[in-house]
Amino acid sequence: MTGTLVLAGTPIGDTEDAPPRLAAELLAADVIAAEDTRRLRRLTTALGVHTTGRVVSYFEGNESARTPELADALEGGARVLLVTDAGMPSVSDPGYRLVAAAVERGVKVTAVPGPSAVLTALAVSGLPVDRFCFEGFLPRKAGERTGRLKEVADERRTLVYFEAPHRLADTLAAMAEVFGADRRAAVCRELTKTYEEVRRGPLEELAGWAADGVRGEITIVVEGAPEPGPGDLAPEELVRRVRVREEAGERRKEAIAGVAAEAGVPKREVFDAVVAAKNAERGDSRSGK
Question: pTM for the whole thing?
Answer without folding.
Answer: 0.77
